[in-house]
Amino acid sequence: MTETQLASRIPLEDYARLLGAGEIEELRALAKPLRGRSMEMINSTAVGGGVAEILTRLIPLAEELDLNIRWDVMTGGDDFFAVTKAFHNALHGGAYQLHRGDFEIFLASNESNRSRLPLDAEFMVIHDPQPAALIEGRKPGSAHWVWRCHIDLSHPSREVWDFLSAFVSRYDGAMFSSPEFSQRLEIPQYLFYPAIDPLSEKNRDLEPEFIRMVLARYQIDAKRPILTQISRFDRLKDPLGVIRAYRIVKRYFDCQLVLAGGGAADDPEGVVVLNEVRREADGDPDIHVLELPTWAPLEVNALQRASTVVIQKSLREGFGLTVSEALWKKKPVVASAVGGIPIQVIHKHTGLLSHSVEGTAYQIRYLLSHPEIAARLGEHGYQHVKENFLITEKLKRYLTLFLSLARAA
Amino acid sequence: MTTAETPFAFFTVSYLVRIGSQSAGTIGELLTGLEHCSDASIFHHTFQTLGSHHFLTEGFSNDFAQWALADANHGDLAEQLAALDIRDYLSIAALRSDLCRVTADYCDAYPDFARQAALERFYFCESVEVTVPLGYQACTLEEFRAGIERMSHASFYFHFISSRLRLHLRSNDFSLWLANTLGLQTLAASVDQIDVYTNTLDSARAKVLRLIDRERRKHDGNPAG
Fold first, then answer.
1. What's the rounded Cα separation, in Å, for the pair A279 and A282?
2. Quick check: B48 contacting A, CB < 8 Å?
3. Vertex A197, ends A378 and B18: CA angle to 5°?
4. What is the ipTM for the molecules in this complex?
5. B27-59 confidence digits (pLDDT tens)
6. How far B87 CA sits from the closest chain A CA (Å)?
7. Per residue in A216-241, pLDDT tens?
8. Same-domain check for residues A143 and A48
9. Cα–Cα distance between A253 and A286 in angstroms, integer?
10. Residue B60 and residue A407: Cβ atoms within 8 Å?
11. Do residue A170 and residue A295 come from a single domain?
12. Nearest 5 degrees, angle CA B161-CA B162-CA B167?
């Protein structure tokens, strides 16, 4: 999938109603010195996964500020995406078996994209490892190039990172979702959070009737506690660990578990993991394993809003935007202290962190036993997201970065 | 009402967070980091974090204290770090000195605790500041009130909280302008007394607006004012 699908125009005034006119006026003030200057974002997939989801919303918003911004998607064959998926897992700390030709396949695909893409904007933002070698297309002395890494680099395969860092070190800066992911690089490294769009179908308010309808469609009982993890069927999201935590909680509370996720264009392992999850569920009627279509934002929204507790028990995580989605809906969250999650879940302030299956189960039981504390965590979580993890804040960070780069030059 | 000769120009601020090269896994390493990190890092983990977490008015003061509590599990040190009030400091050097003193005293008193590994590491980051004008200004108390009501959280933070480092005064941009330009010393002092730790930016702003309204009512009853 290479054709970008931007969200339809959303007037900034709609955000002003939610956030206050002052916040939008501030965006306009930051954008003003950047008008007439070009910006380009490049990633590897037009649909599926968090990066595409953010860009789908970010670009139209930037256009609302009269900025000259473009989003391009690199192309690649199955072999390229198989290699970059292996890179992805290896950079997350998984085992990596170097196959002959992997690096050559990566480089060949980047080279063909260099001749296809314009790469001529004043501010170039390259997302994730797949297009990292596009930097070779940078013309001497031209433009500002920054690399945005969305994945957890805290325990990278040295072999893969050594290969990639040769390209990354040629950028003007690198952005990571957590300080833990930063690397030994000579270039400046910045903290950049992903973001959710409060007006997207995944996050906007829903009618209670619609939520009831979604629960009925999936035969989920609205009267009993619902524990939910929304994520791709990926081992790094530890869906089997979630089921084990649920089984501990189930001894004390008559609850249900919802494991719901869609596929992604660059995730060939999803089917295998989904089958593992179904085997682990072992026919338990209170475990609802839902394979949602790639783009099912309203269903995800409804499931999150219907949840009593939202779980994100990842083993590795780039950022874990589903946490922000849940917090935005004022849901109490129990999540692993990995990757960018502790930035969103400030322990005992905006949610509860855990470090194991047993710890996850304990924190869920605590919240089910103390609904007033769950509600307070949810309220603070909502404020935290409103202040730090909305798409408007993300746009502000990019504007700040571009202004900073331009002023330094 | 008085018209100011020098208008109040409303600005806003935005921060990039630059990841530093230091991190700490123990209280002892935190002390080393505090001694050697940049001024921009001390600013980031104290002044700036108060702005970005303003909605937490119970038990959140600065990143060092939060880490000492949640990750290092040293509640008594956390309490002392949290008790350092940024309003008392006119320079980062003075704030750093007290952060180091509190942490060093703790390490001296409990050398074993100072070596215990924390659950998660503390990463020193620093703020890179970009300011831009909002494009409006105030010459009267009425215009000033309208400007404060209209401004963003970051703008309010810039003028009310981080300003004291810029001014090197135990004050803020609002109070300084009210006192020096409009001659409203009492109002200026009242505004400066608003507690930034127990208020959110919204509730602090609401208090500023209420104080201005009270001042305006006084002048409404005294047309010569």
1. 5
2. no
3. 85
4. 0.90
5. 999 999 999 999 999 999 999 888 888 888 777
6. 23
7. 999 999 999 999 999 989 888 999 99
8. yes
9. 12
10. no
11. no
12. 105
